Amino acid sequence: MGVDSGGVGGGGGSGGASSSPGQVELRLREQLKVAEGRIEELRKMAEESEKQLEAEKTENSRRAKTNEAQAMKIAVLEVANGDLATVNTEKEALVAALAKQHAALEDAATDKAAADHHAATLTATNLAQAAELALQKEAASAADELRRQMHNTIQDLKGNIRVVCRVRPLLPHEEEAATSAAVAAAAAAQAAASSSIARRASMSSSSSFSSSSSSAASSALASTPASTPAPLVALNVPVGDVEQKRVKVVHNEIATHDFSFDRVFNQSAGQGDVFNEVGGLVQSVMDGFNA
């Protein structure tokens, strides 16, 4: 604008004398049109510049937003990468655990197969044992029946009615009497032996003195056992009785009586010995036979 105005002024100064006012006005109008056209061009250029600037601002704003979005995406990607690493670690742990479980399942399957085989073997063994047990029960039942019959036959042979005798131990006063009798018998034996020795020693003496000595010794021997009477009745089991079926009753050491029984128990026999003798009858009764 300044250049154009200067040019217009110079033209007016140089041709002011020769040009008419109309020409000057015409030139001025032409210059004004040129200036207006230039102004319009500049205005358009300014508008275009503003549009470009606005477009650049918009583009910059879009780029900034894009950058922010990309930054957010990058942050999200970084977080996702961290999560992915964690997930991968967990996945590896799960894969390892799954492998262990798979191995454990294979071991369990192997153990189950072995257990099934063992169970089948045990089942077969149990069936065989059950069959054998049934046979053994049948054999035991038959053997028990045979035992009952044979036992009852033995009891019939031995007799269903038996008479046994058990010699009881001596009572305290009987033991004292027996002891006294034994002492008296020993004293009598000793006196008899002394008398015999005295007679042998006095054989060289006179016959009258010998007779009187013999009479005195005899009277002393006769009076010695009378001071301690022997027991009235004594029971004993003969030593030679192997079958233990006889008992001897001695009365006043003179009279003896022998008795026979199915079994005789001496003073040392206990209840167990008696039961062993009659236990067969009890078993026969328990087996259901009449005894």
Q: What overall geometry do the principal axes of the alpha carbons give?
A: rod-shaped
Distance between the termini: 164 Å
Q: Uncertain runs with pLDDT below 50, 5 residues or more?
A: 1-17, 206-232
Helical proportion, percent range = over 70%
Gyration radius, to the nearest Å? 77 Å
Q: Provide the spatial order of strands within the biggest beta sheet.
A: 2-3-4
Q: What is the N-to-C succession of helices and strands?
A: HHEHHEEEEH
Mean pLDDT: 76
Give a verbal description of the structure:
The protein has about 290 residues and is mainly alpha-helical. It has two domains: about 1-145; about 160-285, no CATH class. It has five helices and five strands, in the order H-H-E-H-H-E-E-E-E-H. It has helices spanning about 1-15, 20-160, 170-200, 205-225, 270-285; strands at about 165, 235, 245-250, 255-260, 265. It has a three-stranded antiparallel β-sheet with strand order 2-3-4, with no helix packed on it. It has a two-stranded parallel sheet with strand order 1-5. Strand 3 (about 245-250) and strand 4 form a beta hairpin. Helix 3 (about 170-200) packs antiparallel against helix 4. The radius of gyration is 77 Å and the shape is rod-shaped. Mean pLDDT is about 75; it is low at about 1-15 and about 205-230.
